[in-house]
Amino acid sequence: MSGDHHASSAISERVRHVEALLEARGLVDEGEIDRRIDEFLAGGSPANGARITARAWVDPGFRDRLLTDANAAIREVGLSMAGGLQEQRLKVVANTSEEHNVVVCTLCSCYPIALLGPSPAWYKSEAYRSRVVRDPRGVLAEFGLDLPATTRITVWDASAESRYMVVPRRPEGTEGMPEEELAGVVTRKGLIGTAAV
Amino acid sequence: MSRINDVGGMMGFPAIAEEPDEPAFHADWEAHVLALNAALIRRGVYNLDEFRDAIERMPPDAYLSSSYYEKWFTAITTLLVEKGIATPEELAGG
C-alpha cells in the first residue's frame, strides 16, 4: 500500500485540483463536498446493526422476520437500506452453536454501511478478500476466533446489489439483560462474523 | 474471464492487518474523493456501475499497488476523461 507521507501530500494536491476544476465547471456545488462527507459519516454506524441484533435476541418473532426478509424487518426498528445511491437487498444470517457465518466482498468492498458504518480497511484488503473464502477457519483463527472443528462455516460474498449482516450468538450470562444493554455488547466484527461477542 | 479485482481464493496474499481504533478516513483527501464520487454520480456524470467498472479495469499492477481511495480517484479521473468532462492535462493541472 502506498501510504507514505510524500505520496499522500501529492495525491492530496491532485484531489484538490480536480475538485476546484469541477466546481469551476459547475459540476460540484460550493459546500457540496463537505456536506456529502458529513452525510456519509452520519449515514450509518455499528450501533444500528447492534440494535437489530439485540432485538433479534429478545424477540424470536422479529428474529424470524429478520432472517426471512431483512429489508422489511429492519424498517420495524426505523432503519432502511435505501439511503445510499441505490436500495440494496439485505440478507441477515444468524450464528448458532452448529453454524458460523462470515461476510466478505471478494470483488471489492460491498458492505452494509447503513447498519455498520464505514468499513474497516482490513475488510477491503486483498488479503482478507482472497483468503477468507479459501480458508475461513484459518482466517477466523487469525482474528482470534477459534471455532470447534464441528462448527460449519458459511462465507457470504456480497455484491453490488446484495449486502449481508451476521447476527452473532447471544453471550452466556446475558439472560434478563435489557435490550439496550444487550446492544452495547455487540461489536462491528461480531456483525461481520470475524469475532464472537 | 476475470479481472484483477476478482481476488477470491487467490493465493499469495499476506496475513490480514487490523488497525486498532481505525478512523473512517486516514487523510482528508480520502473523504474528499468519496464525496466527489457521490456528487458526480448524483449529478448523473456517470453511474455506480460505470464507477465500479473503472476501478476493476485498472491494470493489475496499478490496482495492487494503489490504496483503496487511490483506486477511487483513478476511476473518477478515468471517467471524467472518457465522458469528455476534462482532458488528462487539465486534470493533472497542466
Automatic annotation (TrEMBL), chain A:
InterPro entries: CN_Hdrase_a/SCN_Hdrase_g_sf, CN_Hdrtase_a/SCN_Hdrlase_g, CN_Hdrtase_asu/SCN_Hdrlase_gsu. It holds the Pfam family NHase_alpha. Keywords: Iron, Metal-binding. It comes from the Bacteria. The keyword Transport does not apply. Residues 11-195 form the Nitrile hydratase alpha/Thiocyanate hydrolase gamma domain. It comes from Geodermatophilus poikilotrophus. The keyword Cytoplasm does not apply. This is Nitrile hydratase. Belongs to the nitrile hydratase subunit alpha family. Gene3D superfamilies: Nitrile hydratase alpha /Thiocyanate hydrolase gamma. GO terms for molecular function: catalytic activity; transition metal ion binding. Fe(3+) binds at C105, C108, S109, C110.
From TrEMBL, chain B:
It comes from the Bacteria. Residues 1-92 form the Nitrile hydratase beta subunit-like N-terminal domain. InterPro entries: CN_hydtase_beta-like_N (IPR049054), CN_hydtase_beta_C (IPR042262), Elect_transpt_acc-like_dom_sf (IPR008990). This is Nitrile hydratase beta subunit. It comes from Geodermatophilus poikilotrophus.
